[in-house]
Design goal:
Blueprint lengths: L1 H4 L3 H18 L1 H4 L30 H37 L1 H16 L2 H11 L4 H28 L2 H8 L4 H12 L1 H24 L11 H8 L11 H33 L1
Helix pairs in contact: 2-4, 2-12, 4-5, 4-7, 4-9, 4-10, 5-7, 6-7, 7-10, 8-9, 10-11, 10-12, 11-12
């Protein structure tokens, strides 16, 4: 209890909301009232005791679609973020450690990828490839890894000239040791903040692709595709498109609150050790 009092209210709120979304994603088949594609009523029925959030454009229970949509959205965004974080951070730190022509080749390759608008690049790839979950994760992860690469390389360049790294080299440690045991632990603070941001951007990117019809395909549900399917209901005052849009915003805010608190905490701990 004493520890909980030291946590800011914003961090507690973000943790609670993020935990709620994760719970819905993990236990979706058990807590959803109806099946994901099961038609149970008329089109765009209002909220009632039977349908807490009403129904969608085909008469499917919107609450059940929201729960299954949380599972799909969080799973794809999490795996894409993990891929981007792993690729970007390791390659960025490795480029800073190796330097020379290896650094130039990797950095110029990343510059080429970053020069192409991300959404356009993804649309071109997904227009010629099937929009499966694996393809979405690979496309999103590789494109996002360029941003992580630039940040991790910039941080690693500063850490790489520190005395403890030079001592490790003098001991005869190899590049793997220096990357994973010396530089990466000391670069975690900005990378943790970037991890939270990359997850948020992955959720928004996936939702954008699904809204354009190149993301998650029917009958699978994610929040972006649900906005697209129910957008015509806004004209008639039906909130079926606004509810998944609000869920996207709420998830982004809650994850950002947790990431900000973790970043502040790790920075304070390092400052305390330095003092």
């Amino acid at each position: 209890m004493k520890y909980l009092r030291t946590i800011p209210i914003t961090a507690l709120l973000g943790t609670a909301l993020t935990g709620m979304f994760l719970f819905a994603a993990i236990f979706a088949p058990w807590i959803a009232p109806y099946g994901m594609s099961e038609v149970v009523g008329d089109m765009w029925e209002p909220s009632s005791a039977q349908f807490l959030l009403g129904t969608d454009n085909l008469g499917r229970d919107l609450l059940s679609r929201m729960i299954y949509g949380a599972q799909t959205t969080i799973l794809i965004a999490s795996l894409a973020t993990l891929l981007a974080f792993t690729m970007g951070s390791v390659l960025g730190i490795l480029a800073a450690v190796l330097g020379g022509w290896m650094d130039q080749v990797m950095s110029r390759g990343v510059d080429i990828l970053m020069s192409i608008p991300t959404l356009i690049f993804a649309l071109v790839v997904l227009s010629v490839m099937p929009s499966t979950m694996l393809v979405l994760i690979l496309v999103m992860g590789i494109l996002d890894s360029t941003r992580v690469y630039r940040i991790s390389r910039a941080v690693a360049v500063d850490v790489n000239v520190q005395d403890f790294v030079e001592v490790a080299r003098l001991r005869g440690e190899g590049n793997s040791w220096i990357v994973f045991r010396e530089i990466l632990p000391n670069a975690l603070s900005p990378l943790v903040a970037e991890l939270g941001l990359r997850f948020i951007f992955a959720v928004l990117f996936l939702s954008s692709l699904s809204f354009l019809g190149l993301g998650v395909q029917p009958p699978e549900a994610d929040w972006g595709s649900m906005v697209r399917e129910n957008r015509q209901g806004i004209v008639f005052g039906v909130p079926a498109a606004l509810i998944p849009a609000g869920a996207i915003a709420l998830l982004a805010i809650s994850v950002n609150l947790v990431a900000d608190w973790i970043l502040r905490r790790t920075t304070d701990l390092k400052g305390g050790r330095g003092g």
